[in-house]
Amino acid sequence: QVQLVESGGGLVQAGGSLRLSCAASGTIVSINAMGWYRQAPGKQRELVAGISSGGDTNYVDSVKGRFTISRDNAKNTVYLQMNSLKPEDTAVYYCHLVRARTRSEYWGQGTQVTVSS
């Protein structure tokens, strides 16, 4: 059974940094496509950053140059390094995995990120 456990959220001032972690169990992160989504109050959930099994990354325009998604295969963990945070980055951030063979999708429980101005 695949499980994703996020950590690293919190309250930070504008301009600060946070690093989110997503620890996976039940599968190997390096063979699956993974991503970070976020959902702010009253808004739809959006893809923030993704990483393919081959290591290709993609970002929503609003975070390009500020956020970096990465993967530690030894720890079976995916990270989202968030720098130069803005109040509009405030949201619940979710880790997402698409299993390679079955295309089944899995979500973490979410972690709150709040950026104060």
SSE map:
Blueprint lengths: L2 E5 L2 E4 L4 E8 L7 E7 L6 E6 L5 E3 L7 E6 L4 E6 L8 E8 L6 E3 L3 E6 L1
Parallel strand pairs: 2-11
Antiparallel strand pairs: 1-3, 3-8, 4-5, 4-9, 5-6, 7-8, 9-10, 9-11
Class derived from helix and strand content: mainly beta
Strand coverage percent: over 45%
Instruction: Assign a percent range to the helix content.
Output: under 10%
Rg on CA atoms, Å: 13 Å
Give the beta-strand count: 11
Folded structure, characterized:
- The protein is mainly β and 117 residues long.
- Helix content is 0%, strand content 53%.
- The protein is built from no helices and eleven strands.
- The strands form two sheets. Strands 2, 4, 5, 6, 9, 10 and 11 form a seven-stranded mixed beta sheet that branches. It has a four-stranded antiparallel beta sheet with strand order 1-3-8-7, with no helix packed on it.
- Strand 4 and strand 5 (46-51) form a beta hairpin.
- The radius of gyration is 13 Å and the shape is globular.
- 31% of the residues are buried.
- The mean pLDDT is 96.
Spell out the key features of this protein.
single chain; 117 residues; mainly beta; 7-stranded mixed β-sheet; 11 strands; globular
Short summary:
This protein is mostly beta strands and 117 residues long.
